[in-house]
């Protein structure tokens, strides 16, 4: 009978040496769990391995302990959502989580080209509150929790490696208490580089302030079991003409606070920007400009319709903070 295991990383064991070389597997008596994605189809899927998981959470003060894994698609695709499944030992994450963060980085020689809140610039990032419409939280079963993150306006280029960093924001009773930590499940299948983890602020004092392969950290003791993280990427591959149009009219920054800009790509002009609220009501119009002041808009989700000089139109989602 399969048992469920908690991987206690260096942050959860007293192994503070000049190098990180060991982790412990601690069995707990929870049997017959079958963690799964709520959406079973995707452009890229690494299936859940219910025997192992890696801590990945952000505390109330913004300090994070992160896990990351890479993906690569054979065709350019618009990623509409990403789903992550993990577990929490206290089994009360629904009472403690307060949102989530998502970072997507380019590759830097087999590791993410940046560290959240420290170095590098992600190609895409979301900082979501608990009630954000782009974040869906599901208690899949006892101990097991899924986060489905909508990713508006993110396009992954063909044959380009990206790194995904995901962590829920948790209101810990004791900072990074491992009973309250959300642990991202490893995967039974993997591709590309080894999954990695990092403690950017050195909270646990082990010096893990750089991205390190989890497999390397554990000395390869668990074979391939820790090389991938469970994730499901949803969306659709783009035809050549769709790729061209998708690269026009990108709205940034997104989420936005004060102003937005429009990347026009091959288009030589923008005739009009129209911003609609969730009820379809037109709330702002800007003509002959690739930027707009949105500071007076109420925080929420909006639709931006961009009309180009040649008459073509694209519609983009905007999150106003």
From TrEMBL:
Residues 1-23 form the signal peptide. InterPro entries: Secre_tail. It comes from the Bacteria. Residues 251-319 form the Secretion system C-terminal sorting domain. Keywords: Signal. Pfam families: Por_Secre_tail. This is Secretion system C-terminal sorting domain-containing protein.
């Amino acid at each position: 009978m399969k048992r469920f295991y908690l991987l206690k990383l260096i942050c959860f064991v007293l192994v503070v040496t000049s190098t990180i070389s060991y982790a412990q597997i601690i069995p707990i008596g929870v049997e017959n769990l079958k963690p799964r994605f709520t959406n079973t189809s995707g452009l890229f899927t690494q299936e859940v391995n219910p025997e192992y998981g890696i801590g990945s959470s952000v505390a109330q003060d913004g300090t994070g302990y992160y896990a990351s894994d890479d993906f690569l698609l054979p065709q350019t695709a618009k990623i509409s959502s990403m789903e992550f499944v993990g577990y929490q030992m206290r089994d009360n994450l629904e009472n403690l989580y307060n949102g989530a963060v998502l970072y997507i980085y380019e590759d830097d020689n087999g590791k993410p080209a940046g560290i959240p809140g420290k170095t590098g610039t992600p190609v895409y990032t979301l900082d979501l509150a608990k009630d954000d419409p782009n974040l869906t939280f599901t208690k899949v079963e006892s101990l097991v929790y899924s986060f489905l993150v909508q990713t508006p306006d993110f396009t992954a280029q063909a044959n380009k490696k990206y790194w995904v960093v995901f962590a829920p924001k948790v209101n810990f009773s004791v900072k990074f208490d491992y009973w309250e930590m959300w642990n991202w499940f490893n995967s039974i299948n993997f591709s590309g580089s080894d999954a990695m983890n990092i403690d950017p602020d050195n909270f646990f004092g082990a010096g893990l302030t750089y991205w390190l392969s989890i497999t390397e950290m554990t000395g390869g003791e668990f074979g391939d079991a820790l090389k991938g993280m469970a994730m499901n990427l949803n969306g659709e591959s783009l035809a050549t003409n769709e790729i061209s149009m998708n690269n026009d009219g990108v709205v940034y920054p997104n989420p936005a606070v004060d102003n937005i800009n429009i990347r026009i790509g091959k288009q030589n002009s923008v005739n009009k920007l129209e911003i609609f609220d969730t009820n379809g009501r037109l709330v702002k119009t800007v003509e002959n400009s690739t930027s707009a002041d949105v500071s007076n808009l109420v925080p929420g989700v909006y639709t931006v319709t961009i009309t180009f000089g040649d008459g073509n139109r694209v519609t983009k989602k905007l999150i106003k903070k």
